[in-house]
UniProtKB/TrEMBL annotation:
Superkingdom assignment: Bacteria
The record's account of how the chain is modified after translation: Acetylated. Deacetylation by the SIR2-homolog deacetylase activates the enzyme.
Keyword Ligase on entry: yes
Taxonomic source organism: Salinihabitans flavidus
Gene: acsA
Transmembrane stretches, start-end: none
Signal peptide start and end residues: none
Name of the protein: Acetyl-coenzyme A synthetase
This protein's record includes keyword Nucleotide-binding: yes
One Pfam family, short name: AMP-binding
Cofactor: Mg(2+)
Chain positions recorded as ATP binding sites: 385-387, 409-414, 500, 515, 526
């Protein structure tokens, strides 16, 4: 595999925090003396009681335990706000750019962020939220989402942010999953000129939750909502009365900071748990180093706070560093395809971090929407969420970055808390489509999926696992530590298994090839095939369903569903539309099936397991290489499926 490489410019090298010599030296130190290395890095944040213990980790099945800085205490909210007040109280912490470009952007200073967060924290306490209680946040991309997260952190409550695009059913499952006391929502969420009725979604969700769950409602649009006295509370009214100060609680480094649900290969989404100290150190460090953040920069991560990227790189990492972080309520293509670039120009953005799916969609609109904007403030570009194809990378580099902005292709996961593999802008050459180098303290290994052995030497190809822990690693699955161990530590003993495939090229650089399990990555959103299947089979006309991914030009992967209908049910186009709508209602629009094929039967082994490998090949139109079909109970099913393949 040969690939063009793009070395950093001399200017980038001399201005960056980390050049290649420094990277090599620090990386070596992070492996030879992890305790010494992280003891030093832990000082990036303020501790109430300093730690004396650094790392206490076991990846052994049956006793997996991950602890960092465990005898230290801190407050995450004070680290993201209070400690900056003295020197940068008047500096902008959050720039909020609303959905509609005609509406006014807001600049929220650190002093204002402090007041707002304290008030929100006091309101939560008034509603009965105490340390350790869970709070679900179901909000649009508005500053109140950040206040809510930081307010929870301030009083030691655990937040669980639910993406505002999720359905009432998905919301109620998450409220019940962590037994939340309060749900924070808004009347409506404007996005791309349309409005999602968040409060009424919440009303529908709360029908399936305990009566004691309270609902705190932020006014965003002023749209009409129904109101249940005693359950619903008006945030804007309460905020006028609430006190401007709330003392930050002293929290243990290993006390949970948040739960974030993410999809796995089996069953329902799991609640990934991140704790306070290690997570914050890692989010702050990766934010500063990967994006080479300097004082005065304007950092924009386009993710939604409903995903981990929004947690680590809109809220916690940037604010811990006293940065200015931009929060955008809208979408890349509304009112037109130049919106991203107009926002970059308007706010003089220096680092821009987005997903390949957005880049591909915008690339499809041509260069003009980019070229009409002044992007001279940009210094560094980033991508995250899925493998980026070289064409999209090259367009991003040439048309957006004018060939002068290094692209950091950051590989990481909800589970990892922050970047694990990424080039550093002043240290490494980049290659279109490669995530390149491990971050400090991270030891990636390529394993042979059959034997589980590490593949030494270069090039290598196999599955990606990580040897040993880093401070941002997830600690457990909420309420189910056994599932945590089984999912990540049982297939390959002694390693954290990522679920991704990977290649290491002749230069030793890493290329992520995508999931090797039954997890789809649709427009950078993770989704279990099992989730979509169980939504489909919940429809009264569906007998059975199997779901696989197939290559999709914009989304990366599309959702291909094989559906067997109940006896006597007519397979019609109307029913296809109905099922598509059904899945949107059950899970949310991001899970909407792209293609639905009627299947008279599904290829199963004699023991009844659906052979997805075969279904994937058919969906990919690669049925010449179906591989071994001898274990199929009824091989004729396959021919029928091939004959009725959906064209795309
Ligand atoms: C941060 C985030 C994680 C999965 C991960 C992988 C894919 C993320 C990537 C990438 C190739 C990159 N992924 N970054 N694949 N190159 N730079 O996206 O978290 O939503 O949990 O998804 O996304 O497959 O396993 P999450």
């Amino acid at each position: 595999m040969t690939s063009p490489t793009y070395p950093p410019s001399d200017e980038m090298i001399s201005n960056a925090h980390i050049d290649v010599a420094k990277y090599d030296e620090m990386y070596a130190a992070s492996l030879s003396d992890p305790e010494g290395f992280w003891s030093e890095q832990g000082k990036r944040i303020d501790w109430i009681k300093p730690y004396t213990q650094i790392k206490d980790v076991s990846f052994d099945l049956g006793s997996v335990a991950i602890n960092w800085f465990s005898d230290g205490t801190l407050n995450v909210s004070a680290n993201c706000i209070d400690r900056h007040l003295k020197d940068r109280g008047d500096q902008t912490a959050i720039i909020w750019e609303p959905d509609d470009p005609e509406d006014t952007a807001q600049h929220i200073t650190y002093a204002e962020l402090h007041r707002r967060t304290c008030r929100m924290a006091n309101i939560l306490e008034d509603l009965g939220v105490r340390r350790g209680d869970r709070v679900v946040i179901y909000l649009p991309m508005i500053p109140e989402a950040a206040y809510a997260m930081l307010a929870c952190a301030r009083i030691g409550a655990v937040h669980s942010v639910v993406f505002a695009g999720f359905s009432p059913d998905a919301l109620s499952a998450r409220v019940n999953g962590c037994d939340a006391k309060v749900v924070i929502t808004a009347d409506e969420a404007p996005r791309g000129g349309r409005k999602t009725p968040l409060k009424s979604n919440c009303d529908a969700a709360l029908l399936h939750c305990k009566d004691s769950v309270k609902c705190l409602v932020v006014k965003r649009t002023g749209g009409q909502t129904t109101w249940i006295d005693g359950r619903d509370f008006d945030y804007n009214e309460m905020a006028m009365e609430a006190d401007d100060y709330c003392k930050p609680a002293e929290i243990g480094a290993e006390d949970p900071l948040f739960i974030l649900y993410t999809s796995g290969s089996t069953g329902q989404p799991k609640g990934v748990v991140h704790t306070s100290g290690g997570y914050l150190v890692y989010a702050a460090m990766t934010h500063e180093i990967t994006f080479d953040y300097h004082d005065g920069d304007i950092f924009w991560c386009t993710a939604d706070v409903g995903w981990v990227t929004g947690h680590s790189y809109i809220v916690y990492g940037p604010l811990a560093n006293g940065a200015t972080t931009l929060m955008f309520e809208g979408v890349p293509t509304w009112p037109d395809a130049s919106r991203f670039w107009q926002v970059c120009e308007k706010h003089r953005v220096t680092q821009f971090y987005t997903a390949p799916t957005a880049i591909r969609a915008l690339m499809g609109q041509g260069d003009e929407p980019v070229e009409k904007c002044d992007l001279s403030s940009l210094r560094i570009l980033g991508t995250v969420g899925e493998p980026i194809n070289p064409e999209a990378w090259t367009w991003y580099n040439e048309v957006v970055g004018k060939g002068r902005c290094p692209i950091v292709d950051t590989w990481w996961q909800t589970e990892t808390g922050g970047h694990l593999i990424t080039p550093l802008p002043g240290a490494h050459a980049t290659k279109p489509g490669a995530a390149m180098k491990p971050f400090f303290g991270v030891q990636p290994v390529v394993l042979d999926p059959q034997t589980g052995e590490e593949i030494a030497g270069n090039p290598a190809e196999g599955v990606l696992a990580i040897k040993d822990s880093w401070p941002g690693q997830m600690r457990t699955v909420w309420g189910d530590h056994a599932r945590f161990e089984k999912t990540y530590f049982s297939d390959y003993k002694g390693y954290y298994f990522s679920g991704d495939g990977c290649k290491r090229d002749a230069d030793g650089d890493y290329w992520i090839t995508g999931r090797v399990d039954d997890v789809l990555n649709v427009s950078g959103h993770r989704m279990g095939t099992a989730e979509v299947e169980s939504a489909l089979v919940a429809h009264p006309k569906v007998a059975e369903a199997a779901v696989v991914g197939y290559p999709h030009d914009i989304k990366g992967q599309g959702i291909y569903c094989y559906v067997t209908l109940m006896n006597g049910v007519e397979p019609t186009d109307d029913l296809r539309t109905e099922l598509r709508q059904w899945v949107r209602t059950e899970i949310g629009p991001i899970a909407s099936p792209d293609l639905i094929q009627w299947a008279s039967g599904l290829p199963k082994t004699r023991s009844g397991k659906i052979m997805r490998r075969i279904l994937r090949k058919i969906a990919e139109n690669d049925h010449g290489s179906l591989g071994d079909t001898s274990t199929l109970a009824d091989p004729a099913v396959v021919d029928d499926l091939i004959d009725n393949r959906m064209n795309r």
